[in-house]
Amino acid sequence: MPLRKSCWDDDKGDRSGSAYLFDTTTGNLLHKLTAPDGSAHDYFGRSVAVSDNIALIGSYLDDDNGTNSGSAYLFDTTTGNLLQKLTAPDGSVYNYFGRSVAISDNIALIGAYGDNDNGSVSGSAYLFDITTGNLLHKLTAPDGAALDYFGLSVALSGNTALIGSYQDDDNGGNSGSAYLFDVTTGSLLHKLTAPDGSVEDYFGYSVAISDNTALIGSYKDDNNNGENHGSAYLFDVTTGSLLQKFTASDGSRNHYLGISVALSNNTTLIGSTGDSDNGSSSGSAYLFTTNVTSTPEPKSTPEPSSLLGIVGTVALAFLSLKKQQKK
Q1: How many helices (H) and strands (E) does the chain have?
Q2: pTM of the predicted protein model
Q3: What is the 8-class DSSP label of residue 297?
Q4: pLDDT value at residue 322
Q5: Rounded to whole angstroms, how far apart are CA atoms 61 and 53?
Q6: How far apart are CA 223 and CA 228, in angstroms?
Q7: Percentage of residues in the chain having pLDDT higher than 70
Q8: 91-126: b or e for each residue (b if 16 or more CB lie within 10 Å)?
Q9: How far apart are CA 284 and CA 230, in angstroms?
């Protein structure tokens, strides 16, 4: 069931925001969702996620705990009814709780990159039980520091949470990192960084997880394709080991490959907003298979009107698609 965001919608005031649920078979609109207590500049719908019959929608500029403290809403996708409104128990001004959201089974994961527990804008993320609305764990980086932006991106699969911290400095200023946590205990499993990371790579700006693999975007990575070509890295969740690095064979500078990522089983989908096949920064997306032992598939470039979605972070859709096997 696709869930489309519209954070600039004006039903409850300027940029109060909304989200739309569609039937994947017919394309028909099922429900338009808005916050019952919405108001101007809440940006409800800036982030969305769906699992089974539950939709999770972020409203990261909501003001319940102070200016731009943020919130998130759980809806029943069958009825369109509100189930829970979630806020951070310790929320405060400019926490931006709800800028990123993820949902899996009975758990909701909500990022708050503006939280200040480890310094200004160090960031955090919260795990909730979606049935009760109770907080399970607050997650922060054990080595977090000011301006790390931990929680700008989040992903969730089963018992594992993945949280990006794209301005972490382990490999140089704003090189970036990502953290894997156990959902049950709240314990850190692994900290992930790019083995070849360097300054301003923004590793962790986008993240996705599926079963035992994690995909991390690094859209400002400089490589053989040029400055800011971008890349994405696939890791084993159990060991924390790097499995593959993805780049575009036809890439060039400022392609920003990895600005968005999705992952389902052995298929990765990676956005490249700076690609210019259909005009300057018209954008594209690349499909890779993660099975390196299989026979490489031929590269194909469908018509620009082609759309593709992968269930996970709420389907990513692009107007240009490039498909190739990881070399």
Answers
A1: 0, 23
A2: 0.88
A3: P
A4: 42
A5: 26
A6: 8
A7: 85
A8: bbebbbbbbbbbbbeebbbbbbbbbbebeebbbbbb
A9: 13
Contacts with 90 (C-beta within 8 Å, 6 or more apart), sequence order: 138
Nearest to 105 by CA among 56, 162, 176, 40: 56
Strand partners, 210: 213
224 exposed, middle or buried (CB, 10 Å; 0-12, 13-18, 19+)? exposed
Q: In this structure, which amino acid lies at residue 93?
A: V
Token representation of residue 201? 């790579």
5 burial type by CB count under 10 A (0-12 exposed, 13-18 middle, 19+ buried): buried
**Beta strand extents in 130-168 (DSSP E only):** 135-139, 150-157, 160-165
**Minimal CA–CA distance to 155: which of 208, 115, 106, 202?**
208
Element spanning 233, H or E: strand 231-236
| 20: CB partners within 8 A, 6+ apart | 3, 4, 6, 29, 31, 32, 33
- As a whole number of angstroms, the distance between CA 85 and CA 87 comes to 7
d(CA 220, CA 278): 21
**pLDDT tens digits for range 14-45:** 878 999 999 989 999 999 999 999 999 899 99
Residue 288 amino acid letter: F
Q: Among 108, 89, 96, 91, which residue's Cα sits nearest to residue 48?
A: 108
Determine the Cα–Cα distance for residues 92 and 220; give it in Å rounded to an integer.
31
Which amino acid would we find at residue 154? V
For 125-141, what is each residue's pLDDT tens digit?
999 999 999 999 999 99
Instruction: Give the pair of three-digit tokens for residue 189.
Output: 């499993």
Query: pLDDT at position 49, please?
Result: 97
